[in-house]
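Today's session is about reading a structure prediction critically. Students often jump straight to the picture, but the first step is always the sequence itself: look for stretches that repeat, for charged clusters, for runs of hydrophobic residues. Only then move on to the predicted structure, which in these notes is written as discrete structure tokens rather than atom positions. Here is the chain we will use throughout the hour.
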Amino acid sequence: MVKYGLTTLKGEKYMISQTAKYLKYAFRLTSQEMVLMDEFGEWLPDQIIDCHCHCNISDHTEKIDPRLINHPASTFSYFDLQWAEQAKHLLFSGKSICSLYFSLPLFGIDFVNANQYLLNKASALDRIALLGIPSEVDYTIYRNINTILLFLQFNSSIHPAYSYCKKQIFRA
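Below is the predicted structure for this chain, in token form.
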């Protein structure tokens, strides 16, 4: 199965190589950025809570809606925990960071496996917000998943919530 992301139609290997290529560039700080990091590090607290971290792996990306491809929020259709940890250590060296992780809230992400990945792989210091699935009442309601609104909010400009979310979920 070909998976789609920002670089749709060119295949998964191209998407992965483009993402990796960008991150390799982004993780190489310039001397000016290093100076800024030192300055910021002086006034940042020793303990930081990062309450908005999207993480899922490329295997969770099935097919991203083509209307989302050029949306600024879909720069990456995946960003794994290893990259997130690298970013933390690079940007907040010497700081203790606790993160709240959740999958990217895009149509085309396998939320069941993305949720499980985070539950299995995230650090014990971090927290996980599970994303619900609008069409899966049992999965969403009976697991007390209450972060479905993130998914609905992002997609409401493309698909009205009532067009894909079962009524039982709204009532819950």
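Discussion point for the tutorial: The helical segments are 12-26, 31-43, 81-91, 111-121, 137-141, 148-155, 167-171.
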